[in-house]
Design brief:
There is one protein chain. This protein has 254 residues and is an all-alpha fold. It has one domain. It is 69% helix and 2% strand.
């Protein structure tokens, strides 16, 4: 399945989750209109239980929307910051070249690290795009970028910083490429990378919560809706208006 097909499938699933939630509210409204004639013995499908389940479902979906937005923002912040690695590393290398007492072997190591940061092999072939990471589409349709590429480029930048700081031969011509600026940039990279990890964990938790509220085999909304339909099918005739309204509400597992 290519990326476009994955995006369509993810979009269909998101629509399906929301449709299940909407139909569950319609189911609740229908049984509420039945008044005292709706008296199931199963505690899972009482009006009170249905009302609670409907609330939990909408809360789970709302929580997921927030987590999805926060994860996307964290991804965007990190991507924007990591786009700056190549030019900043190149400036560090140029400053290293212009410094008086830098040994040739140090320049050689720095040049090799710079190639790794920019994704170039010794042959000159590009292995990782310098300003555009490899993208995939996750199951929520959120654009996610290969974590490995970020981790690798961060590790290479730290290697460059370690090399520069290993001797006192580095002579920056301005504060924006000085020791403090390099440390600050590294800290920003680490923080941005960590923030993505945290936001992705929250996103996974939010998806799991929505799945539980909608699709748990015992207490999920889809399961509960089927119980309500079965109860009314046994209580009412197939031609009864109340049963016809509820029968038409579709619930699907995604």
């Amino acid at each position: 399945m290519d990326m476009q097909q994955q995006a369509v499938s993810a979009s269909d699933a998101e629509t399906g989750h929301n449709k299940n939630a909407d139909n569950f509210y319609l189911l609740l409204a229908a049984v509420q209109r039945m008044g005292s004639s709706y008296q199931p013995s199963n505690p899972l499908i009482t009006v009170t239980a249905l009302s609670s389940k409907a609330l939990h479902v909408v809360q789970a979906i709302s929580h997921l929307h927030i987590a999805t937005h926060e994860a996307a923002e964290a991804q965007n912040r990190r991507t924007a910051l990591f786009f700056k690695i190549n030019p900043f590393a190149a400036r560090i290398y140029s400053t290293l070249q212009s410094s008086q007492h830098v040994p040739p072997i140090m320049l050689q190591h720095a040049r090799a690290i710079l190639k790794k940061i920019s994704g170039r092999r010794a042959s000159g072939k590009t292995t990782v795009l310098p300003t555009k990471a490899v993208a995939v589409m996750n199951d929520a349709g959120v654009r996610a970028v290969s974590q490995l590429s970020f981790d690798q480029r961060l590790a290479h930048f730290i290697s460059l910083r370690n090399l520069v700081f290993s001797q006192h031969a580095y002579e920056p011509t301005g504060q924006d490429v000085g020791y403090s600026a390099i440390l600050k940039f590294e800290d920003d990279l680490l923080e941005a990378n960590h923030a993505v990890g945290l936001s992705n964990n929250k996103l996974v938790d939010a998806r799991n919560l929505r799945y539980t509220e909608l699709y748990d085999k015992t207490t999920g909304a889809v399961t509960v809706a089927a119980l309500v339909k079965n109860y009314l099918k046994g209580k009412l005739s197939n031609s009864h208006p109340d049963y016809i309204k509820i029968k038409g509400l579709a619930f699907r597992r995604w």
